[in-house]
């Protein structure tokens, strides 16, 4: 794969990831109480920490998405996207393993979100996609450095 | 790339956290940072009740208990007399219990205790259906709190 192709594939991949994260973050930012309810459904965090997570997580997703979209701090944005998707996979995986019948809340509260199993598989695809884009970024930087 | 990326990522997390806190402070929808379920309920105008209060109110006429868990969990065991109104199947289940709920002077909703959110969700949905805040309460300790006090449990499916 040439430098130009790598550059464009990496760029399109970043924009795709940015769209996913923005699409996920905005409804949660607009309804923090609803997202807090969704977080409690996972029965994973102490109740006292739920509000803090509901306040901070959507904004971290949104800032990461902006980094991916603009290319400013793109490596950080890609690492953050991978890390967040890994965390979501862990949360969904434990909910699936425990047989919790909950809305995943992935793209906002009460939006007919997918079941836990479906959300887990969807997140797995997103994670593989994000890993691929990170690899492309590495290849792009190596090509640019002439290595 | 990795070191630079990690530093950038930490910067993005810090920026996101700062924006989140700022937005939460300025927004009318902002959540209290601490206090968990109790604080969220207070924000909605719904009060939390303790086990002693639940027992007191159950002796008063017009009090109805609502179990917000799934029908399967409800069938395995619930507080005697509680109606099942699952958060995930609220719309189909509501008409079956609507008449009794509309006649209640106090509706106490519970689920699986501290970390479950379905009682909050059902309380919010009842608010949306026009139930006054003063007629709604959430029993935060839920079924585990009831069982810890060695109070009786009823099993079987709902109506």
Give the rounded overall mean pLDDT of chain B.
Answer: 89
- Outline of chain A, from the CA principal axes? elongated
Biggest interface reads: A-B, 47 and 44 residues
Into how many domains do the coordinates of chain A divide? 1
Total DSSP helices of chain B: 7
Query: Beta-sheet strand percentage of chain A?
Result: under 5%
Q: Could you tell me the mean pLDDT of chain A? A: 90
N-to-C SSE string of chain B, H for helix and E for strand: HHEHEHEHEHEH
User: Structural class of the helix and strand makeup of chain B?
Assistant: alpha/beta
Major sheet description of chain A = none
Oligomer: heterodimer
Largest sheet of chain B: 5 strands, parallel
How do the helices and strands line up, and which of them pair or pack?
The complex is a heterodimer of chains A (147) and B (159).
Chain A lengths: L2 H28 L1 H10 L5 H24 L3 H24 L18 H29 L3
Helix pairs in contact in A: 1-3, 1-5, 2-3, 3-4, 4-5
Chain B lengths: L1 H25 L9 H9 L2 E3 L1 H8 L4 E5 L3 H6 L6 E2 L5 H13 L3 E5 L7 H11 L7 E4 L2 H7 L11
Parallel strand pairs in B: 1-5, 2-3, 2-4, 4-5
Structure description:
The complex is a heterodimer of chains A (147) and B (159). Chain A has helices at residues 3-30, 32-41, 47-70, 74-97, 116-144. Chain A is mainly alpha-helical. Chain A has one domain. Chain A is elongated, with a radius of gyration of 16 Å. With 159 residues, chain B is α/β, with parallel strands linked by helices. Chain B contains 7 helices and 5 strands, in the order H-H-E-H-E-H-E-H-E-H-E-H. A 5-stranded parallel beta sheet of chain B has the order 1-5-4-2-3. The termini of chain B are far apart. In chain B, 34% of the residues are buried. The chains are: A mainly alpha (147), B alpha/beta (159). The interface between A and B is large, with 47 and 44 residues.
């Amino acid at each position: 794969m040439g430098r130009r192709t790598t550059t464009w594939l990496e760029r399109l991949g970043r924009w795709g990831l940015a769209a996913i994260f923005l699409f996920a973050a905005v409804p949660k930012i607009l309804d923090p109480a609803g997202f807090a309810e969704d977080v409690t459904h996972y029965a994973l965090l102490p109740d006292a920490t739920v509000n803090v997570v509901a306040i901070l997580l959507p904004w971290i997703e949104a800032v990461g998405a902006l980094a991916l979209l603009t290319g400013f701090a793109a490596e950080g944005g890609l690492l953050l996207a991978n890390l967040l998707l890994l965390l979501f996979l862990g949360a969904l995986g434990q909910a699936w393993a425990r047989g919790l019948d909950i809305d995943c809340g992935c793209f906002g509260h009460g939006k007919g979100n997918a079941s836990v199993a479906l959300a887990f598989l969807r997140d797995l695809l997103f994670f593989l996609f994000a890993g691929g884009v990170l690899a492309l970024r590495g290849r792009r930087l190596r090509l640019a450095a002439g290595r | 790339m990795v070191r630079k990326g990690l530093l950038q990522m930490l910067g993005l997390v810090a920026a996101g956290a700062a924006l989140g806190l700022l937005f939460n402070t300025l927004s009318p929808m902002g959540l209290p940072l601490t206090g968990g379920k109790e604080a969220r309920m207070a924000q909605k105008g719904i009060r939390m009740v303790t086990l002693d209060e639940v027992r007191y109110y159950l002796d008063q006429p017009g009090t109805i208990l609502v179990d917000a868990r799934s029908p399967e969990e409800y069938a395995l065991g619930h507080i005697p007399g509680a109606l099942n109104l699952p958060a995930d199947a609220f719309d189909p289940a509501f008409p079956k219990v609507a008449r009794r709920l509309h006649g209640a002077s106090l509706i106490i909703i519970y689920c699986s205790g501290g970390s479950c959110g379905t009682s909050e969700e059902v309380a919010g949905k009842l608010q949306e259906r026009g139930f006054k805040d003063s007629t709604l309460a959430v029993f935060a300790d839920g079924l585990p709190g009831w069982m810890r006090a060695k109070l009786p449990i009823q099993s079987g499916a709902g109506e």
